[in-house]
Amino acid sequence: MTTPLLPGDPRQLGAYYLDGRLGSGGQGVVYEGYGPDNGRVAVKALHGVSDRDRNLLRKEVAAWRRVAPFCTAKVLHDGLDEAIPFVVSEYVAGPDLAHAVERNGRYGPEELRRLAIGVATALVAIHRAGVVHRDLKPENILIGPDGARVIDFGIARVEEPSPSTVGVLRGTLRYMPPERYRGQRGDAAVDVWSWGAVVLFAATGRHAFDGRTPSEIQRQVAEHRPDVSMLGEPLRGLVSRALAKESAERPTSEELLLALVGRADLAAALNDATFRDLSGSGPLSSGERAEAVFGGLGEGAREAVPRVLLRLVAPGERAEDTLRTARRADFADGQTAEADVDEVLRAFGAAGILVWEDGLVALANAALIRAWPRLREWVAAEREGLGVHHGLSGASRLWDDHGRKNSDLYQGTALARALSWAATGRRLLTLNRTERSFLDAAAALARGRARLRALLSGVLAVLLIAATGSAVIAIDQRATVVGQRDRALSAQVASLAESLRRTDPQLARRLAVASARLGNTSQSWGALLALHDQWEDESVKLPGFEATANDLAGSGRILAAATGSRVEFWDVDTRKHLGSYDAPERVTNVSLSDDGGTAAVSTRDGRTRLVGTANARPRDTRTYPSPRGDKRREELSPHGTYLMVQEDDPGRPVTLGIWDTRTGKKIVTVNSGRWPLGMTSFSYDERVLSLPVGSGRQPFTWLDTRTHKKIPVPDLQVSAADVLGPLTFSPDGRFIALPVRGGRIRVHDLAHRYTNGDLVGASDISFYPVQFSRDGRYLAQGTTVWDTDFSITAKPFVRYTTTDSECYADTIRASRRTARVSAASEPTASSGP
C-alpha cells in the first residue's frame, strides 16, 4: 500500500518524480514514482552506501539485468552515482505475499500451486543468470495481476566458482537456511530453502520457523522439521526436500519447476503461474484517484478543475520547481462559480491530492502531473503560457499587497508579452480579478507615457532643427562628394546581387537592400524588384566535397549526397548535418524513401544496403543484389518497406525485382518493358503496388502488398501506348495522376471513383516524374505546377524554367508550399515558391 511522502523524503530521484512510499527497511526506502515517459515505477533509494558498496551494487545490478523477466520485476534504470543512490524497477500493482495472507487468509490448494510455480519460475530465471537472491521472503514477493513477482535483490550476489566464504550474516532470519547461520555464503540452494518456507507460510498463514528471538529461530532452523502434511503432492515432497538441512539434499530450482509443471520452459510456465482471480490486486495510483474524484464532480465543478489545478503548476523541470501555491482568493476569476471552486478544492483535498498550509493550497506532489493523463493534457495545452502566468500572478499579487503602486506595474517587453498571452495564448487558464486589474492599469500607464513621449519628441525636433541649421552650409559640399561615391558603390552592389539571384537568393536579397540604402539608383531599385518577384527562395550548399550521386527525399527536406565510399545526410531546412555512412565500396547510387527515413546505398560490388538517415547507420545486416554501373536502378517505396531493383544485364531480359526489406525476401518479379523501374509505383501507405503489366483494358496491374493478390484498377480511359510514366498516388490516397501523350496529365479521384479530367501544359518528353504536394493540393512535373482543383483551371499556374544541367530530373520535390530541386554540379538544394 502506498503511503504519503514524509517531510524528509526527496521529491525526485534522477528523472523520476516520487509519489509515495511503498515500503522501507534497513537498506532504504521504496517509493512509487513516475518516469519521463509517465510510466509508473518502483524506485528504491539506498541508505548508508559507501564507495565500496556502490561498486558492489553496480555488479549486482548488472547481474540482475541479465535475469529474464519471468515472474521478476525488471530493472529499468539505476542511479548509483547520484548523491542518493537508487535503482528503478517495474511497478507491480499488488500487495506483497505477507499482506495478502494477512488480509485474505491462507491460500487454497489451486492458488498455492500457482504461487509455488510462479516463485519457482522466478528462481529459475534468477539462477540461470548466475545470481542468487539470498533474501526470498513473503515481503519480497508481490502478488500482481499476472501472478507472483519476486522483487528486492538488495543482498543478492553474483554466483562465483568458490563454494562459500565467511562473511557478515545478512538476510531475514526466518527464511535463512542452516548454512547461512554457520557463516557460509551459500549458493542457489539458499533460495530453494526460502522457497519451501514461503510456500509453507502461504499454506498455513504462519512462519515455518516462528521463534520469538534470534537464538530461538536459529535453533529451530538447525533442528526443527516443519509439518508439511497439509500439502498435497507434489508440493508436499518438494517442500520437504527444499527444507533439507544439508544444501546438497535440496532440489535445484529447475527440478522444482519440472516437478510442478513437467517442463522448465519459463514462458510456458507463466500460464500456470497466473492467478485467475485478479480483482482488487493493487492500490489505485494518484492519477486513478484523481480521475475518480473528477468523475464524481458536478458538471460545473469539472469545468473548473483545469482552471484550479493549472494555477498550481509551474513550468519547471525538477519536481520541486513544477509546483506553486495559491490563496483561495486567487481562484476568483468572475467566470467560475464560487461554489464550483469550493467543490473542487474540497473533493481533491479530501482525496489527499491537494494540501493546505497557512492559507495556501498546493498539489500534494508533482508526480500527479505525470500520473494523471488528463492533467498532463491540460499542462501540455498551456505549457508555453505557464511561465508567463506564473510571473503575472506573482507580480499582480505584489502590486495588490503593496498598495497598487505604478512602480510595481509591468512595462515594456514584460507588459507586451503578458498582454499577448492574455489575448491570444490562453487555452484553459483564466485571469483572476487582481491579474485583470493589474494588466488594465499597466496598459493605461503605458498609453499615458506614450502620449507624453510624443509631446516631448515634438519639442526636441524643433530644438534639433535650430541646432543643426548652422551646420548645413559647412557639410553641403562634403555631402555631394559622399553621395557620388555611394551611388557608384550602390550600382556595384546591385550588380553583385543580380548575379547571386539563383546561387544564393538570401544573400542576394540582403545585398539588394544594402544597395538601396547606399544610394537611390535605378540599379538598386531594379535589383530590389527582381529579387522581390523571383522564384528562388533559398539555396543550400553543402561544404567539403562534390557529390557523385545524390537524392532528395519526397518531403524535400532530407538530402543524401555521396562521394567515393562516403554518404552524407543533411537536413536541408535546418542545414544540420545528420551523419555520415562509410560504405565498404565506392558508392554508385543513392535513393531515399519519400519520408526521408531510409536510404538505399548501392556500391561498386553490386550490392545495395539500407541505411537509416537519422543516425547514418545500416538498418540491418542484409544486402540486396543490384546491377553494377552509375545509372540508377534502385528505388525505395515511400516508407522504405520495399526495395525495387531493376536488373538489365546485357543479353538478358530486363526484369524488376521487388524485395520486402522486413524479411529480406523477394516478393515480386516483373518482366515488362524496357524500363519497368520507371513505370512501377506504390501508394503512399504502401498498400497498393502498381505494376506496368496490362490487366484487361488497363495498362497497369495493382497488387495488394499484404496479400500479394490482384485488386481492381480504376478505368483511366487510356491505352498503354499513350502512357508516358508511372501512376502517382497522392499522399492522402484521394487522387492518382498519370502523364499521357498530348502534354496532358490525367487525374482520377479514387475517393469518388471518377476521372476529373486532364491537366494541360505538360511535356511529352520530360524526364521529370509527376509529384503531388504533401497535402495533395498541388501537382508538379519538374517545376511546372498545377492546382488539382479543376474548378480553378486545368492550366499550370507556375512554370519555372530549368534544365537537366541545373537539376537532377529525379530530385524535383513538391512540398506543401514549395518545389525543391537538387543541383547536379555540387551538393546543393534550392527551393522556390
UniProtKB/TrEMBL annotation:
The keyword Cell membrane belongs to this UniProt entry's keyword annotation: no
MF (Gene Ontology): ATP binding; protein serine/threonine kinase activity
Record's keyword annotation contains Kinase: yes
Annotated Basic and acidic residues bias: 617-637
Stored InterPro entries: Atg1-like, Kinase-like_dom_sf, nSTAND1, Prot_kinase_dom, Quino_amine_DH_bsu, Ser/Thr_kinase_AS, WD40/YVTN_repeat-like_dom_sf
Pfam families, per the entry: nSTAND1 (PF20703), Pkinase (PF00069)
Record-annotated Protein kinase domain positions: 16-266
Listed PANTHER family: SERINE/THREONINE-PROTEIN KINASE UNC-51-RELATED
Protein name as it appears in the record: Protein kinase
